[in-house]
Predict the structure.
Amino acid sequence: MQKTFLKVTGISKDYPGIRALDNVSFSIDHGEVVGLVGENGAGKSTLMKILGGVIAPSTGSVALDGVAAERLTVAGSLRGGIAFVHQELNLFENLSVAANIFIGREPLKGGPLRLIDEQELHRRALPYLNQLGADFGPNTLVGELSLAQMQLVEIAKALSLNARLVIMDEPTSSLTASETERLLIIIRKLKEDGVSVILISHRLAEIEHSADRVVVLRDGKRVAELAKGEIHAETMIRHMIGRDLKTLYRPPRQTAGSAVLELVDVRTSYHPEQQVNLAVMQGEILGLAGLVGSGRTELARTIFGLDQLKGGEIRIKGEREDIAAPASAISKGLYLVPEDRKRSGLILDFPIRDNITLPNLDAYSRHGIIDVRGEEDAAQQQREQLDIRVGNLSTPAGALSGGNQQKVVLAKWLSMSPKVLIFDEPTRGVDVGAKSEIYRLMRELSDQGVGILMISSDMEEVIGVSDRVAVMHEGRISGFLAREELSEQAILSLAVGRVAA
C-alpha cells in the first residue's frame, strides 16, 4: 500500500462570474489527520463537493491510491472509501437511528417480500453508538433527539461505511465539551487504524489538538500549508484573513444602566421545580453559561414565549409582561436570535429581503398591500449596516454562508428598535472573521443601550464577550461572576453545581 491515499492536483472550479477554487493542490497520507481551515466562502465546501463527486472540477484531477481521475462520481467516491460527516444534518427525523445509519444499505429478510430485518438493523447499529458513547438506542426516533445527538448519528453513519478517509465538516459544532473530547479520541483511534481524516472546523483549538498538517484556503486559493510544529491559532487566523486579528473581543465603553429584562422566580416547563432570578441591564452583555441540559435554551424559549411560563414574572423595563407567545415578546421589543438559525431563524427558500422584513410587515403595508419599494429600501439599509455579503437581496437565504445567515437573522430585529436581544449560540458554525463582525455588532448594540443575554457553550467567547456571566446548573442559576472574576475554572465550577465562595 502506497503512503499517499488522496492527492488533489491543480483543482479549479469556475461558476458564472466567480472562481470558487483556484489551482488548489494538496495530499493526505493513510492514517493522517489534515485540518482544512478558511473563512466561509474560502472554497472549503466546493472542494469537499468535488471530493464527494457531487460536482466536477473545471480543471485538475483527484487521485486515490495513485489512480487519477479528472472527476469523482458520488458512487466512485463511496467505493474509494470516502465518507462525509456534514455540518448540515442530513437525517430523516421520522425514522429510527438505526434506519438512518444504514439508509439504502438495510439488511433484508429472506423470502419473496424482502422486508427489512429490523432486528439485524439494530444489532449492526449498536456497536457504532457504543463507540461514540451515545445515550440513546438504535430504536430511538431521530426526531426525538437533540442537535448534539443528531450529530452523533451522522458520525455513526460515516463510521459504518468502513471509510478509508472520513471528512468531518464542523463535527463538533453542536457537541458538548465531553462529547467533543470523545470525538477527538475517535479521530485519534481512526488515525491509529490507518484511516485518514480531513477535519474542517472553526474551533481552531480542535485543529491544534488533532491535526498532523493544516491546509489554509483563502478566496479559493491554498495560501498556506502548516506542519505540526507550526499549527497555532494565531498563525492559522493570520493566513485565513490575511492580517493579524489583534483584538477579537471589544470591551465595554460605558457603565450599564438600569434593568431592561428581569426574571423573578421564573419556572420553565423543562425544570418546573427550579426558580430563575436574573436581570439584564441596559447596555450590558450578560453571558449565560452552563453545560448542555442545564436549561439555558429552554429559559430563552420561555422568555420569548415559545414555551409556557410555569411560574414567576418577566419584567421589561420594570413592567410585568404577560408573554404567552413570540408575538407578545416582539411587541415589547424582546427578540430571540435562535441556536438553530436554519430551522428556527430563517425561511431558507425565501429571499433575503423577505426574511429581513417578515416580522414587521405592517410597517411596509398599506391597507393590506405590501409596499415593495419600502420593503426593499429597509432590507437594503440592513444589508449595508451589517455588511451582508450578497449580490442580490432576492437571493434565497439558504444560499448564504453561515455568518451571513446569522446577520440576516439579526437584521430582521435591528430595524425594530430592540430593547432586549437574546442570542443563543450567536457564532455557532461561523468563521473567525464573521465572529469578529458579530461581536462588533453586539457591542455596538450594547453601547446604544440594548440589553443582551448571550447563551454560549464556547468558553473563550463567554469570557471574552460578556460584561457579567450567569451560570446555570440543572435549571437554576448557580452563581454570577463579574468581568474581573471570569475564568474557565470559575465558570466550570458553577456549571457543575458548586456554589461560588
